[in-house]
Write a structure and sequence with these properties.
Length: 495
C-alpha cells in the first residue's frame, strides 16, 4: 500500500528504538517477503501477554469502581443515606464534571510524564477514594468521594487508547481496544456477581452490605495499582520482555505503518495541532455518535440492576440477573473486533452495533411483558458495548500526528461522558421506573441517529480517500509537506 517504505537497517539505533508515541501519517504497509512470519507472530503475542492484560485490568477496575454505585443503590445505599432520586442523579453527575475536565489535559501530558508512571498513580489513588465511599456517613461525604473519583479516573480510557496506539499498527488495534474495553462488559457482569456475594456481609464489622462493596473493590484496586508500577512498559523500546531483534522489528513495523513519527518535531506538542483536531470533519461526525453512545452506555451501566429489579426480581436476584446480558456483550464485542480488524470495516461494524440498540430499545418500549423486556437487554447492552470500542478505534485510526490524535481521542471521550451526565438524569429522575418510557424513547431516537451519523462518516471518509487517490497519481510523498498528518494523500483513512 505504500509508495515508499522506510527501512530500519540503516537508521541510528537510538532514533530507531527510543520512541514514546506515534503518528499515523501513512497507511499500513503490505508486509514484504523479507518479513519473518515467526517473528511477526512472536512480537504481537508477547505484547498481548504482557501489556494487554494489564491495560484490561486498568479499565475493568475503572469501570467497576465508577459503576458499582448502581449495585450499592440496589443494596440500600440510597435509603441509608436518605437520598432522593434527584440527589442520586446529582451524585452521579458530580463524578462526570471533573472527569470530563481531566480528559484532554491528561492525554496531552501522557507522553511527557510517561504512561508507566501516570496511569498507575491514577489507579492507586482512585482505589483509595473508592474504598472511602464505604465509610461515608452522609450524602455530602458521598459527593466529595464521587468528585475525586471522577478527577482521578478522567484520563484513563483516552489514555489507554492512546497508550495502545504506541504499540500496535492501525489494523491490529481494534481487537486490542475491544479486549480491554470488553472489561467494561465483564465489569457489568462481575459487578453483579460480586455484589450478589458481598451484600451477604451485611452487618460484618458494623457495616452494611453496600459499604463492603466499595471497601473491598477499592482495596483490590489500590493493591493492583501499586503492582502496576512494575508491570507497564513506557514504550516498546523499554519493554523488558523484548530482545533487541524484537524491539527493532516492532519499531520498523510501526514506522512503516506511520505509527512512529519520522522526526520529533512533527510529533512534538503544539497548540496548532490541538486546534487542527477541532477542524477535522471525521472528528465531529463521530463526536455526535460518541455523545449518544455515552448516554446509552452509562445509562445501561448505572441502571441495569434497577431496570432488572423493576421487572419483578428481588434486590439480591436483580444483581444476579444483570450478569447474562453483559456476558453476551463481552462475546459480541470480541467477535465484532475480529471482523472489523480482519475486513477493515469500522463503519459497517458501528452501524450494525447501533442497529442492535435500535431493536433492543424498540422491544423494551413496545412490550409490557417482563420476559420480552429482559430479552431486549441482550440486544441493547451488547450493541452499545460493541459500538464503543469500534468508535474509539475509528477515532485513533483517522487522526495524526500525535498531538492531533491525542486531542481527537480526548474530545471523543469528553462527548461520551457528557452523554453520561444526560443518562444519570434521564434514567435517575426524569423517567420513572419501572417502565422508563421517556428514557427509552430518547435512547431509541439516539440509536437511530447513531446509525445515520456512522453512515455519514463512512461516506465522508470514502470520498476523501478517492480524492487522495487522485492526488497520488500526480505527486510523490517527498513532494508533500511533512507535517500534514492525516491530511496527507498517503494517509488512507480507515473505513
Amino acid at each position: 500500500m505504500l509508495d515508499k517504505q522506510s527501512s530500519f537497517s540503516s537508521e541510528d539505533p537510538e532514533k530507531r528504538l527510543d520512541f514514546d508515541d506515534n503518528s499515523h501519517n501513512i497507511p499500513s504497509p503490505t508486509v514484504g517477503p523479507s518479513v519473518n512470519p515467526a517473528l511477526e507472530k512472536r512480537v504481537w503475542r508477547k505484547l498481548d501477554m504482557w501489556v494487554l492484560p494489564v491495560v484490561t485490568m486498568f479499565y475493568l477496575l475503572s469501570f467497576l469502581d465508577r459503576s458499582n454505585i448502581g449495585n450499592a443503590r440496589v443494596a440500600g445505599l440510597q435509603k441509608d443515606l436518605k437520598m432522593s432520586n434527584k440527589e442520586y442523579s446529582i451524585a452521579l453527575t458530580i463524578t462526570y464534571v471533573p472527569y470530563i475536565a481531566a480528559e484532554l489535559p491528561s492525554n496531552l501530558l501522557l507522553k511527557t510524564v510517561g504512561p508507566n508512571l501516570m496511569l498507575p498513580t491514577m489507579l492507586t489513588l482512585w482505589g483509595i477514594v473508592t474504598a472511602l465511599q464505604g465509610v461515608v456517613k452522609s450524602y455530602q461525604g458521598l459527593l466529595a468521594c464521587r468528585f475525586f473519583l471522577g478527577l482521578l479516573e478522567g484520563g484513563v480510557f483516552p489514555g489507554l487508547v492512546l497508550y495502545l496506539s504506541f504499540f500496535y499498527p492501525r489494523q491490529k488495534l481494534q481487537w486490542r481496544i475491544s479486549a480491554f474495553f470488553s472489561a467494561a462488559s465483564i465489569s457489568g457482569a462481575f459487578s453483579g456477581l460480586l455484589a450478589f456475594g458481598i451484600i451477604n456481609m451485611n452487618g460484618v464489622g458494623g457495616k452494611t452490605g453496600w459499604a463492603w462493596i466499595f471497601i473491598l473493590e477499592g482495596l483490590f484496586t489500590f493493591v493492583f495499582g501499586l503492582a502496576s508500577f512494575f508491570l507497564l512498559p513506557r514504550s516498546p523500546a523499554h519493554a523488558r520482555f523484548f530482545n533487541q531483534e524484537e524491539k527493532d522489528y516492532v519499531a520498523a513495523r510501526l514506522r512503516g505503518d506511520g505509527s512512529i513519527g519520522k522526526n520529533e518535531a512533527i510529533d512534538s506538542f503544539s497548540w496548532r495541532e490541538v486546534g487542527m483536531a477541532f477542524k477535522l470533519p471525521q472528528v465531529w461526525l463521530l463526536a455526535v455518535v460518541f455523545f449518544f453512545d455515552g448516554t446509552v452506555l452509562y445509562g445501561l451501566a448505572y441502571f441495569t440492576p434497577s431496570i432488572v429489579q423493576g421487572l419483578g426480581y428481588t434486590s439480591t436476584r436483580a444483581q444476579l440477573m444483570s450478569v447474562p446480558p453483559f456476558a453476551v456483550a463481552f462475546v459480541l464485542s470480541m467477535i465484532g473486533a475480529f471482523v472489523s480488524d480482519r475486513y477493515r470495516c469500522r463503519g459497517y461494524t458501528s452501524m450494525f452495533a447501533s442497529l442492535l440498540c435500535v431493536i433492543g430499545f424498540a422491544m423494551f418500549l413496545a412490550s409490557t411483558h417482563h420476559n420480552v423486556q429482559y430479552a431486549s437487554l441482550f440486544l441493547s447492552i451488547p450493541g452499545t458495548y460493541l459500538l464503543a470500542p469500534t468508535l474509539c478505534t475509528w477515532f485513533a485510526n483517522n487522526a495524526a500526528p500525535h498531538t492531533r490524535r491525542a486531542t481527537a481521542i480526548a474530545l471523543g471521550f469528553i462527548m461520551t461522558n457528557s452523554g453520561g451526565i444526560l443518562a444519570t438524569w434521564l434514567l435517575g429522575s426524569l423517567s420513572p421506573a419501572p417502565r422508563y418510557i421517556l428514557a427509552t424513547r430518547v435512547l431509541l431516537a439516539f440509536s437511530v441517529i447513531m446509525v445515520a451519523f456512522c453512515g455519514f462518516n463512512l461516506l465522508y471518509l470514502w470520498t476523501a480517500n478517492k480524492k487522495k487517490a487522485e492526488i497520488r497519481k500526480t505527486t510523490t510523498v517527498d513532494q508533500e509537506h511533512p507535517g500534514l498528518g492525516d491530511k496527507s494523500a498517503w494517509f488512507i483513512y480507515a473505513l
